[in-house]
Amino acid sequence: MSASRSLSRSLARLSQAGCRRAPSTSAPYRGLTALPSPLLRSAPTSRALQSLQLSLSRRAFSTTPQRRHGHVTPPKPGEELWVTFIDKEGEEHKFAVSAGDNLLDIAQANDLEMEGACGGSCACSTCHVIVEGEDYFDKMPEPEDDENDMLDLAFGLTETSRLGCQVIMTKELDGLVVRLPSMTRNMQASDFQ
Amino acid sequence: MAVVGSGPAGFYTAYRVMSKLPQARVDMYEALPVPFGLVRHGVAPDHPEVKNCKDKFDEVASSPNFTFVGNASIGHPGHLAEHCTIPLKVLMSHYDSVVFAYGAAEDKKLHIPGEASLKGIYSAREFVGWYNGHPDCGQHEPDLSRAEEAVIIGQGNVALDVARILLEDVDVLRKTDISDRALAQLAQSRIKRVHVVGRRGPMQAAFTIKEVRELMKLSGVAFHGADNSLIPAALDTLPRATKRLMEVIRKGTSASVSETPKSWSLDNCLSPKAFIGDRRNPSLVGSTEFYVTKLEDPFNPRSSVARTDETVTLPSDIAFRSVGYKSVALPGFAEVGIQFDEKRGVITNDGLGRATQSSSDIAEPTGTHPPALPGVYCSGWVKRGPTGVIASTMSDAFITGDAVVHDWLSGAPFLSRSGNGTAEGWEAIKADVGAQADEIVTWDQWRQIDQAETAQGLTRGKPREKFTSIRDMLSSIK
């Protein structure tokens, strides 16, 4: 932590104030290479700082971008399927995607805060999503035992929980809405025993 | 920021802080020349998918703001002269913050007669380190060629990993990164029967469903069936995870024990009393004596248990204790005011990862905490005790990372004199430790070790053949 602390403080404040990602209605599909183009909501004078903050935060891990961003296929015109993620802050992010892509890859390609510790191999529970609406949940193929085994360990498990890496977009799931549970669980009394 | 330890707790904490404070610089210290902690030396070789989190750690390490300082321990001397030891006080004088994420290097003991004196008794931690090629575990080679009946004391996932490695077809393991020394020994194994013993019942066990299901699916291995009096007759009212786990245990294996060459069982309500020497070879363990215990409420996951006067003896040609890992304090903690809770084996902290000044007032989840030690944090098993899978360590590490970020942004006091982010980190420590600084292993040098191991594995049809000695690791660096 060697850079100026006050700069990082003001950058972080700006980030909280104005650097949320694009809300659902205006977020275009960003494809494989395009950088995120966030909707800046605060005064124009602070934009330079905001984009500096953004480019810094994007750059921190940008040396191997293909790892996180290489798994999705841009949808062909007219064949777009729509999926909406609701993040921890309640913000909606709507993306046009292709059939065959899974929710973990879609979330990571769009810089949403979703980990995939096991690389999408159904061996952890870090890509847990909650499907909004039972009808969509019922349209999905039943989870296999190994997915359910991992969901059993997920924090905040619900009746419509799935692992993002196992939900593959199909035509039937067009319009799907999923919620990202809080990544960091609340401390439990058992943690202190 | 310094991170002590390069396992999942260390890497996920670094990742969180670096993501939220893009200017943060992180130096990560690792006592071994090789990174990743239990991802390398703990996760079972037949669970390669669990190790995929290394991709994320590689990504973190590739940041220009990240420095790996391998083969360097804090306070402890190394096994070889080619090692760098950094006194804790020196470390803390050159950083704004230090995150302790060095895990749990020891294991809990049973403290029963025979445990220390008889041969053939191993700690699961040593056994896991042995088959995973940990350089410290080479001398703990178990003799599987004479043993037919194994007793594993403990019912967590480590116990089930040990059971699975003992029972699995060795040809399945040949395709994994299990160490060659373990393959040679497992190929001679005569183990036919494994007891996984717990003081309490299936409803109270610490293992998780994936590991139980894997054992039920091993070919040529049957399950003896659980004691049904310890499982509720009606499972529908149980919480989902418990219900599914009990279903798997109750269903057991499709093959019965008379049809398969190998078998295993969950032996419940037994508390170890003593290891007893073999009749023909009294220096070797031959059996294990247990007190029979009684659960106050067998269906309550938190049921207390009391031991009775009744005893049971299980034949045990080989025995493993797997009753938990334990963290220990680093040399110098007391001197710098870091409180270590010996009972729980954790750095005393506020539950969010801030080390606190006094242990006299035990932290309550909602109560007030003693004041935090400026700039001192902990993460992972040394923070909350040695339990949980990588996902839980990750969320725990994120909590610590968020505490660091919050404190930094809110202007809380940190370690360095100025607290303004001018601490020089490893660059300054280099000067303090003198010639020892030349012994460290950088990330690029780890890459060379990594490539050499991968190349060795290739010739054996394995993803990797690990070096099992520090000297071999260091020799592979050009």
From TrEMBL, chain A:
Q: Which GO terms describe its biological process?
A: P450-containing electron transport chain
| Signal peptide extent | none
The record places domain 2Fe-2S ferredoxin-type at 81-184
Question: Which InterPro entries does the annotation name?
Answer: 2Fe-2S_ferredoxin-like_sf, 2Fe-2S_ferredoxin-type, Adrenodoxin-like, Adrenodoxin_Fe-S_BS, Beta-grasp_dom_sf
Name the source's superkingdom.
Eukaryota
Respond yes or no to whether keyword Heme is given for this record.
no
Q: What cofactors does the UniProt entry give for this protein? A: [2Fe-2S] cluster
Residue ranges annotated as coiled coil are: none
Pfam families reported in the protein's UniProt record: Fer2
Q: What Gene Ontology terms describe what this protein does at the molecular function level?
A: 2 iron, 2 sulfur cluster binding; electron transfer activity; metal ion binding
Q: Provide the Gene Ontology terms for cellular component.
A: mitochondrion
| UniProt keyword Metal-binding, yes or no | yes
**Annotated keywords:** 2Fe-2S, Iron, Iron-sulfur, Metal-binding
Tell me its family.
Belongs to the adrenodoxin/putidaredoxin family.
Protein's UniProt name? 2Fe-2S ferredoxin-type domain-containing protein
Q: Which organism is it from?
A: Trichoderma simmonsii
What lineage is this protein's organism placed in?
A: Eukaryota, Fungi, Dikarya, Ascomycota, Pezizomycotina
UniProtKB/TrEMBL annotation, chain B:
From the Swiss-Prot or TrEMBL record, state where the protein is found.
Mitochondrion
Question: According to its UniProt record, which reaction does this protein catalyse?
Answer: 2 reduced [adrenodoxin] + NADP(+) + H(+) = 2 oxidized [adrenodoxin] + NADPH
Q: Which cofactor does it need?
A: FAD
Which residues take part in binding NADP(+)? Answer: 155-158, 199-200, 211, 388
Q: Sorted alphabetically, which InterPro entries does this protein's record hold?
A: FAD/NAD-bd_sf, FAD/NAD-binding_dom, Ferredox_Rdtase, Ferredox_Rdtase_adrenod
GO cellular component terms, semicolon-separated:
mitochondrion
Report the GO molecular function annotations. Answer: oxidoreductase activity
UniProt keyword Transmembrane helix present:
no
Chief location of this protein within or outside the cell:
mitochondrion
Q: Keywords in UniProt for this one?
A: FAD, Flavoprotein, Mitochondrion, NADP, Oxidoreductase
- Cite the Pfam families for this sequence: Pyr_redox_2
Q: What is its EC number?
A: 1.18.1.6
Q: Which family does it belong to?
A: Belongs to the ferredoxin--NADP reductase type 1 family.
Q: What is this protein called in UniProt?
A: NADPH:adrenodoxin oxidoreductase, mitochondrial
